[in-house]
TrEMBL record:
Region described as Disordered: 495-514
Membrane topology: Multi-pass membrane protein
Protein name: Amino acid permease
NCBIfam families: put_Glu_GABA_T (TIGR03813)
Transmembrane segments: 16-34, 46-68, 89-114, 134-152, 164-184, 204-221, 242-266, 296-324, 345-366, 372-395, 416-435, 447-467
Length: 514
């Protein structure tokens, strides 16, 4: 999940080069927060990262590019799924995106709280503070509510903070982590994992090895965000795929080498999901005799997470506001302030985040709560991706003549291969996400699975119920949400159409006839 901004506007006349777009995508996707979870696997993490890149990262990137250029009207994933399957499933997809981010906040902020705990000079005391539930809870609540009030000020207030936060808190620490980890190995440090080629392929006789790896898919989530910039790319047919491949390569390199750097330094048995990144940095700095860098880096990581959270507080809520004004949520949800920010949606989001954060204090360990929240985020996000991949494949048949400035190469077979790989990968990861990992103590496995199943069913049933109860007066008469193509043409999402015009052209043509 991205910890960096993807909302910085690129409407300038100057076209984006492929290198600029590649860097934007790397900043959008890469987060160092999850590396310790994969460091548990040692060398076999390489296999998982490459597998997830082939079956998820590349399909998401290419499918989103085709959908964003073919249906550039407002709405994003709501628009794409709605064109294929109608507004009910589109609303489910959009709601999943909003609620998934809401569930993700406590896990991202737990990492920020742990980073802040490590700013102190005494590592043993820092580690104790980072496991103190009340310290973690107070940081999560203070920072989140602060971010919410900053979001009320409008996008321009925090755009700069989030862009620089991504560079200071993600890219620079990633480079330092990789350089020090491999320097440690090169200059005689004893690696904490066995370095042999046979360790790269995981031992699939242990079913648990598959489970925690399902969460690796979400590491790569977010590449669809920058598909909105595809129209601003110079020569998109050639440069967009190049930018995507460079970004995918850069992302995989940071994840693979960053994970290995942690695995070299921290023994397998000592890896902790919330602390190990900071402990690895501290160990490396001690080895390199630059201990004073520890608090500096902990501060940088905290800035990166905080900046990302501030940005993400405003992002999906703005998307949900567009959908609400199109008539899919009651008027209460559509309330905005003078900066056009969705104040009621933001407040509701803050209340849900506060409730989930309090669960951290109730559950047996911060690590167990962290794992449940992380897995729920994966499950909800994957439902959105399953709908997105299905829509992309289906639209090749229901709207075959629709102009697509970027089209996945290889015709319909190319779409079946790329979109199909993403769909199957997402479905497998979805199923595996419900199985408790044996590497982490999550209390009772039955309770763990039950909590995940109940929460997933609840969050899926909620948007379907809201959709069923919608009223005509919910629609804002000033909404700028364009109707779906099949609505304009008087058809249904399930009936194929050979129309070769963009929605805006059809609307213009109809209004000139009246």
């Amino acid at each position: 999940m991205t910890d960096a901004t993807t909302h910085s506007s690129s409407r300038q006349a100057k076209k984006l080069g492929f290198l600029t777009l590649a860097v934007m995508n790397i900043v959008a996707v890469v987060s160092l927060r999850g590396l310790p979870a994969e460091a548990v696997y040692g060398l076999s993490s390489i296999f998982y990262y490459l597998f997830a890149a082939v079956f998820f990262l590349i399909p998401v990137s290419l499918v989103a590019a085709e959908l964003a250029t073919g249906w550039p009207e407002k709405g994003g994933v709501f628009r794409w799924v709605g064109e294929a399957f109608g507004p009910r499933w589109a609303f489910l997809a959009m709601f999943m995106l909003w609620i998934e981010v809401t569930v993700w906040f406590p896990t991202a902020l737990t990492f920020a709280a742990v980073s802040l705990a490590f700013i102190g000079p005494d590592q043993r005391w820092d580690e104790a503070l980072s496991t103190n539930k009340f310290f973690v809870l107070s940081v999560v609540l203070c920072v989140y509510w602060l971010a919410t009030f900053i979001a009320f000020k409008g996008v321009s207030t925090f755009a700069k903070v989030s862009r620089w936060g991504g560079i200071i808190g993600t890219i620079i620490p990633a480079i330092i982590l990789i350089l020090l980890g491999f320097a440690y190995l090169t200059w005689g440090g004893a690696p904490q994992i066995t370095l042999s080629w046979d360790k790269v392929i995981p031992d699939f006789t242990h079913f648990d090895n598959i489970v925690l790896a399902a969460s690796i898919f979400l590491f790569y989530a977010g590449m669809e965000m920058n598909a909105i910039h595809v129209k601003e790319v110079d020569n998109p047919k050639r440069n967009y795929p190049i930018a995507i491949m460079l970004a995918a390569l850069g992302t995989v390199v940071i994840f693979v080498f960053g994970t290995l750097a942690i695995a070299f330094v921290i023994p397998h048995s000592d890896i902790n999901l919330t602390q190990s990144l900071l402990v690895a940095f501290d160990d490396m700095f001690r080895w390199a005799h630059v201990e004073w860098l520890g608090p500096v880096l902990a501060s940088a990581l905290a800035i990166g997470v905080l900046a990302g959270v501030v940005t993400w507080v405003g992002g999906p809520s703005s998307g949900l506001l567009v959908v609400a004004k199109a008539g899919y949520l009651p008027r209460w949800w559509q309330h905005t302030n003078k900066n056009d920010m969705a104040t009621h949606i933001l407040l509701l989001q803050a209340i849900i985040v506060s409730f989930l954060a309090v669960l951290f204090v109730v559950l047996p360990s911060v690590q167990a709560a962290y794992q449940i929240m992380s897995q729920l985020t994966v499950i909800l996000y994957l439902i959105m991706y399953i709908l997105m991949f299905s829509a992309a494949i289906y639209l090749r048949f229901s709207q075959p003549a629709r102009p697509r400035p970027y089209r996945i190469p290889g015709g319909d077979i190319g779409m079946w291969i790329i979109g199909g790989a993403g769909l199957i990968g997402s479905l497998l990861a979805f199923v595996f996400s419900f199985i408790p990992p044996s590497q982490i103590s999550v209390g009772s496995p039955e309770a763990y699975v039950s909590i995940l199943v109940v929460l997933t069913l609840f969050f899926c049933a909620l948007p379907l119920l809201i959709y069923q109860l919608r009223k005509p007066h919910w629609k804002d008469e000033n909404t700028d949400f364009a109707p779906f193509t099949w609505q304009v043409e008087g058809g249904h999402p399930g009936i194929p159409t050979n129309s070769s015009a963009h929605t805006s052209d059809v609307v213009t043509r109809q209004s000139s006839h009246h």
